[in-house]
Amino acid sequence: MSKIVMWFRKDLRLDDNTAFSHLLKQSKETDEVMCIFQLNPSQFIKKSYNHDAFFLSVQTFYKELRKRQIPLHFLYGDPEENFTALKETFDDWDAVYFNKDERGFGRVRDQKLADFFEQHQIQIHAYQDSHLHGVEEITKPTGESYKVFTPYYKQWQLRSKRPYKKQQVIERIFPEIGHPLFDEGKKQFNEIIKQIKLPFDYECGETVAEDYLKKFITNGLHEYQSKRDYPLADQTSKLSRFLRTGELSIRKVWHAIQAEPESTGRQTFISELCWRDFYNMIYFNHPKQKDQEIKEQYRELQWHYDEQLFEKWREGKTGYPIVDAGMRQLNQTGWMHNRLRMIVASFLTKDLMIDWRMGERYFQEKLIDYDSASNIGGWQWAASTGTDAVPYFRIFNPTTQGEKFDPTGAFIRMYLPELNDLPNEYIHCPSKMSKKVQESLGFYLGDHYPKPMVDHQKIRPEILAFFKNS
Ligand code: FAD
Fold first, then answer.
1. What pLDDT, on a 0 to 100 scale, did the predictor assign at position 469?
2. Pocket test residue of 240, 279, 371, 388 for ligand 1, highest count of atoms within 8 A of CB
3. For the chain, how are helix, strand and coil distributed in percent, rounded to 5?
4. Active-site residue identified among 303, 397, 403, 418
5. Taking CA 411 as the corner, what is the angle to CA 409 and CA 413, rounded to the nearest 5 degrees?
6. What's the pLDDT at 50?
7. Is 335 a residue of the active site?
8. What CATH superfamily classification does 296-468 receive?
9. Given 275, 285, 397, 418, the catalytic residue
10. In CATH, which superfamily holds the domain spanning 1-129?
11. Which residues of the chain have pLDDT under 70?
12. Residue with the nearest Cα to atom 8 of ligand 1?
């Protein structure tokens, strides 16, 4: 008999969990399996509440496991110290199973721990589980990695995807293992949960994730192409947060979509899943991208760091309604529609010329679907410093974006009730209202809603010069 650790991370499900199903297949009935969740305090972002929603997903997973008589043991502290202490107690521990983190913080941690496991003769069973294709699977015929999305996507489409394997009934006994480390881990976990205060409801768990998938396929998939850009339509899948926590298997999503008839909506949705893999691969190949521009020629740009302007952007008080509605959606719900993410990121990096890293970190704190690869990818795309082939003169006009994607202003009114009574002709540009109109409405710009913090039309040449002179 030996002891085996199943280390759960961003894979909070039993269904189609690659590492867990391999463990069940490869181990003996008599082996003792310890299921573990490791809490590393250096990863917590203390000032944010939205981001911590992740731990509510962990809590739900813990309860789901309990119902199946599978205890989840918590560890709290530095991972290497935790595992050292564990090995000192359980010298019959000889294998660890987990799903790999292929980039970012998790990748560095895994590399460090790989040495530790090897030193202690603990066999590592690590699997690619979180993406349809891992970071090294799709390469050019020369073996080089892709830098641009379109050729990557062409290759990606040609490659077959792994099957989805529904979790069968588990006929195994998972013992509850007593240890002061686990007691401390559970105590700390309870503390974390107690401190979470979300300004919105947060439903989570495998069953909820599956419901979202089913609802999207029935109501949104085939119209995805025509409706996905309109925040009011709210027709995107909202699956990002379940993919982030691993409450939903990406292979389950893929095969459910494959079972549907062909449509433009279905095809566009598939390309979005590819963006997720693409950015994951890019992060793997550019490990410094959280702090450093991918395009070398933009590493010396003189970004601005004006705290007051940044605060107005954060709070949704820029004077540009579509930007402000997006930011308030983020602050109030922990999620923001993709079109709005592009608009607000463009506004921060181009109109305000504020360092994209500040925006990236703010999103990290606030997004419940925060995924480092997609977020950094999205921010570097908006700042024109990333892999995108379109040059820096793509600058979103916040007024025309609003007119195009929220034509009646109904979405803006949802998040900016102070603009509720504005006639449609002014909803995207309240600063166009003359004094007389303001008086007739009893609405005064500067009092009831901020004046635009910059004049987009006038600032455009400055932005172009900012990039050109770099
Ligand atoms: P849907 O439109 O239903 O798309 C389906 C799935 O495809 C998403 O759940 C997501 O997994 C994937 N996807 C869609 N668009 C993208 C994209 N552009 N890049 C990578 N994957 C994509 N996505 C995150 O998951 N986490 C982030 O932290 C994140 N930050 C972003 C920051 C910026 C500045 C921008 C422009 C985009 C960011 N995105 C991020 C991508 C995208 O906005 C979200 O994935 C999407 O809005 C999530 O909603 P949904 O699940 O309804 O998406």
1. 75
2. 240
3. 50, 10, 40
4. 303
5. 70
6. 87
7. no
8. DNA Cyclobutane Dipyrimidine Photolyase, subunit A, domain 3 (1.10.579.10)
9. 275
10. HUPs (3.40.50.620)
11. 45-48
12. 240
| DSSP code string of 46-80 | TT-SSTTHHHHHHHHHHHHHHHTT--EEEEES-HH
CATH class of the region 131-165+205-285? mainly alpha
Tell me the best of 228, 229, 272, 405 to mutate to test the pocket of ligand 1, counting ligand atoms within 8 Å of each CB and taking the most. 272
Predicted local confidence at residue 48, as pLDDT: 66
Distance 437 CA to ligand 1 centre (A): 40
Indicate which atom in ligand 1 lies nearest the CA of residue 381.
36
- Determine whether 379 is an active site residue: yes
93 flagged as catalytic = no
Largest Cα–Cα distance of the chain, in whole Å?
A: 84
Predicted confidence at residue 246, as pLDDT, reads: 98
* Nearest CA, atom 17, ligand 1: 275
104 CB neighbour count, 10 Å cutoff: 18
Select from 270, 281, 374, 405 the residue to mutate for testing ligand 1; criterion: most ligand atoms less than 8 Å from CB: 374
Active site residue 469: no
Strand partners for 32: 3
| Domain coordinates in residue numbering, the chain | 1-129, 131-165+205-285, 296-468
Predicted pLDDT at 430 = 97
Does the annotation mark 7 as catalytic? no
With helix as H, strand as E and coil as C, how does 425-438 read?
A: HHHCCHHHCCHHHH
Taking the centre of ligand 1 as the mean of its atom positions, its distance from the CA of residue 52, in whole angstroms, is 19
CA angle 371, 379, 465 (to 5 degrees): 170
Catalytic annotation, pick one of 7, 93, 335, 379: 379
Lookup: tokens for 16: 């189609």
Determine contact, residues 73/177, Cβ cutoff 8 Å. Answer: yes
Each residue of 253-289: pLDDT tens digit?
999 999 999 999 999 999 999 999 999 999 999 999 9
Q: Which residues line ligand 1 (CB under 6 A)?
A: 228, 236-240, 243-244, 272-273, 275-276, 279, 338, 341-342, 345, 363, 367, 369-371, 374-375, 377-379, 382
Cα–Cα distance measured from residue 367 to residue 332, given in angstroms and rounded to the nearest whole number: 10
pTM for this structure? Answer: 0.97
> What are the CA-CA distances from residue 280 to residues 138, 140, 161, 203 (Å)?
12, 16, 17, 26
Backbone angle region of 196, left / alpha / beta, with phi > 0 → left and psi within -120 to 50 → alpha: beta
pLDDT of residue 46: 62
Give the pLDDT confidence of 227-248 residue by residue, as tens digits.
999 999 999 999 999 999 999 9
Equal CATH topology for 1-129 and 131-165+205-285: no
Residues 155, 159, 160: CA angle, nearest 5 degrees: 160
CA geometry: angle at 457 spanning 454 and 458, to 5°? Answer: 70
3-state class of 396 per DSSP? Answer: coil
